[in-house]
Every structure is written in structure tokens, then in C-alpha cells.
Specification:
Elements: E1 3-8, H1 16-28, E2 31-38, H2 50-69, E3 76-80, H3 84-95, E4 99-104, H4 111-114, H5 117-125, E5 129-133, E6 144-149, H6 157-169, E7 172-179, H7 186-204, E8 209-214, H8 218-228, E9 233-238, H9 245-248, H10 251-256, E10 263-267, H11 270-282
Parallel strand pairs: 1-2, 1-4, 2-3, 4-5, 6-7, 6-9, 7-8, 9-10
Protein name: Universal stress protein
InterPro entries: Rossmann-like_a/b/a_fold
């Protein structure tokens, strides 16, 4: 029977060294892979929105799954407890794994290593544990990781055309965050519908994209995304300046203070687009 290999990572999901370690184990013989991520608790915002936290963990896992699929490797995935040790032990018990691969930042940046995660897991499970270090600062690669933040404008044509243009020019991986307009209920549903509409349109064009809903406060949503994901550039899509709450709150200037990544602002006049679409149907 194939041996079950548990892959544990967080911010280093999708890193070259991690993917290569999984590929090497795949080529060494029969193996099934279970890829997990803890549900990070956000640093920004006054309230923790569980759906946003789960979405972010799923997106991090998807970065590794997507890279593995490019090499013909399929894997099971899951999101687990926020504590990495508890997440790993729970996954060992649930999936009855035979081996573990744990991916971390370099020692100087890794909270997991400061808390002796590798040794604790080895002692608790008795299983072989391979430690993989991913230095995201050095692991640039050919793919540009783009964070897109949009809400009512997520279905807008200018935003989609900008993403399609970038994807045609060079390899990109897009992560879309749609801030919810309330803590629960139909507002969350509206945000998810807008998210899925954009993701499905991108995927139909063969463009790699994933995403999730975010904190209702757009600034907190961006700040948390910068914590959760690898980001090389940011696109913020808003309504026209006079109608945009985000612009009135100086969102773009505030985001520039917390990231060195270049920021592109796209305005989408949703009302004008809807009127044009209605006129075309009537004609």
C-alpha cells in the first residue's frame, strides 16, 4: 500500500523547496499526500471572522496543490487548528500518516522553529519528519503573486481585462479578496457570489486564481491578506472616487504605508456597466 505523507506548511505553501521535496518523495515510490495548513489568526481587525480565516488557509494550501498538479501529482487537503502542533497531531491521527514533511521559514524568521515544532512532533508521533526550509525572499521564481481586493466592482470589465492582460504578459498567480459587507448573513453571501463570479471567469480563461472573503473593513482585509499570502503586487478595485467609501477613507494611501509592493488602482463604474448591459439586452 502507498505510504501516507503529511505535508504541513503555512506561509511557505507553494515554495519551490517544498514542492521539490514532495516531488522527490513522489518519485521515490508509492505515496499519497495530505497537505494541510493551520488557520492563522489575523493581526488586524477587531473581530475574527471564521469564514475569512478558513478561506485564507484554503488558499494557502491551494498554492501547493496547484504547483503539484503542474507536475502531475494529486493530493488531499485540509485546514486545521490554528496551533501548528495541534494541527499536525490532529492530522496524524485523522489521516493515519506514515511520514511527515514540515515546511518553515528560515530559522531567523520562523516562529515554528522557535517553539521547537519539529522536535515536538517527532517526539509525539515517532514518525520520520523531514524539515524543509523555504526562504520566500530568495524564492522569487517566474510567477508574480498578485493580490486583488475588490467588492462591488469584482465583476467589472476593467478589472477582468487588467488581470487578463497581466496573465498574458507573464506568469501570474492571482489571489482575490472580497471584503464582506457585514459579519454574517446575506452580506457574506453577496461577497462570496462576487468572489466566485470573478474566479470562475478567470479560470474559464485558463488563468490561475483563488481567493476568499475578508474582513468587512477593507484596510483590515488588505493587512490580513499581506499577513496570510505571498504578495508581489496589489490591485485595488473601487467605484469611482466620488462614490467610493474606500477612496473617501484613503484606503490606497494607508495600504502603501504597510507594504513595499507596488499598488495599482482601478476604478469601475458599476452603474454605467449595468446600464450598458441592460441597453444591449433591450436592443
Amino acid at each position: 500500500m502507498a505510504r501516507r505523507v503529511l505535508v504541513v506548511a503555512n506561509e511557505t505553501h507553494g515554495g519551490t523547496n517544498l514542492v521539490e521535496a514532495i516531488r522527490a518523495r513522489h518519485e521515490a515510490g508509492d505515496a499519497e499526500f495530505i497537505v494541510i495548513a493551520p488557520q492563522n489568526r489575523p493581526h488586524s481587525g477587531y473581530v475574527i471572522y471564521d469564514e475569512a480565516v478558513r478561506d485564507a488557509a484554503r488558499c494557502r494550501v491551494e498554492a501547493t496543490l496547484s504547483a503539484l498538479r503542474e507536475h502531475g501529482i494529486e493530493a488531499t487537503s485540509d485546514v486545521m487548528d490554528p496551533d501548528p502542533y495541534t494541527a499536525t497531531i490532529d492530522a496524524v491521527r485523522e489521516y493515519r500518516v506514515d511520514e511527515i514533511i514540515i515546511s518553515t521559514h528560515p530559522e531567523t524568521r520562523s516562529g515554528w522553529l522557535r517553539h521547537d515544532l519539529i522536535e515536538r512532533v517527532q517526539n509525539a508521533t515517532g514518525l520520520p519528519v523531514e524539515h524543509v526550509v523555504v526562504d520566500l525572499a530568495a524564492d522569487r521564481g517566474p510567477v508574480t503573486h498578485t493580490l486583488i481586493v475588490a467588492n462591488k466592482t469584482a465583476r467589472g470589465e476593467p478589472l477582468f481585462e487588467e488581470l487578463r492582460r497581466r496573465a498574458a504578459e507573464s506568469p501570474h498567480r492571482f489571489t482575490v479578496i472580497v471584503p464582506q459587507e457585514g459579519g454574517h448573513g446575506h452580506h457574506t453571501g453577496q461577497a462570496r457570489e462576487r468572489l466566485h463570479a470573478l474566479l470562475e471567469r478567470l479560470r474559464r480563461d485558463g488563468i490561475s486564481a483563488s481567493g476568499g472573503i475578508g474582513d468587512p473593513d477593507a484596510y483590515a482585509a488588505v493587512a490580513n491578506a499581506l499577513q496570510f499570502y505571498r504578495v508581489d503586487e496589489v490591485i485595488i478595485s473601487t467605484l469611482p472616487r466620488m462614490r467610493s467609501r474606500w477612496m473617501r477613507s484613503n484606503l490606497i494611501d494607508r495600504v502603501r504605508k504597510i507594504t513595499a509592493a507596488p499598488i495599482t488602482h482601478i476604478e469601475v463604474d458599476v452603474g454605467a456597466e449595468e446600464s450598458a448591459a441592460s441597453g444591449a439586452k433591450a436592443a
